[in-house]
Write a structure and sequence with these properties.
Elements (H helix, E strand, L loop, with lengths): L2 E4 L1 H17 L1 H20 L7 H6 L4 E5 L5 E8 L2 E9 L4 H5 L18
Parallel strand pairs: 1-4
Antiparallel strand pairs: 2-3, 3-4
Helix pairs in contact: 1-2
């Protein structure tokens, strides 16, 4: 099983989302944290499950995302040999591209694949 490392931006994102739901209801906040935990456990079992779409768009090699079940958040991560790096938890209504281009995000150039002409 791979180890998971959480980046500083992820911690802030999770705290803000939890605080938002806590203002609505303590129960809703607990449901959010449970959904986040479910996404976390799913990544441990199937690390390649996430979509690479945004990583390819912003040029961050290996960046993938997984939707948080029942909540409008995307969990961004990179699979590395032996571990996963969780980097952001972003609400779907936010400007995701701009947030992924902020300092603190890994900046490795993505490899462009040729398009299939058929």
């Amino acid at each position: 099983m791979k180890r998971i490392y959480r980046g500083p931006l992820l911690r802030t994102d999770v705290e803000k989302a939890t605080e938002h739901y806590e203002r609505e209801s303590a129960t809703l906040s607990m449901h959010f944290l449970a959904a986040y935990g479910n996404a976390y456990r799913l990544l441990l079992q199937y690390p390649s499950i996430g979509s690479p779409r945004y990583g390819q768009t912003v040029g961050i090699s290996g960046l993938r995302y997984l939707p948080t079940p029942s909540f409008p958040y995307l969990l961004f991560y990179q699979e590395q040999p032996g571990h996963l790096v969780l980097s952001r938890l972003i609400h779907m209504s936010r400007d995701i591209i701009s947030l992924l281009e902020t300092p603190g995000m890994p900046r490795r150039k993505a490899v462009r694949r040729p398009r299939n002409p058929l």
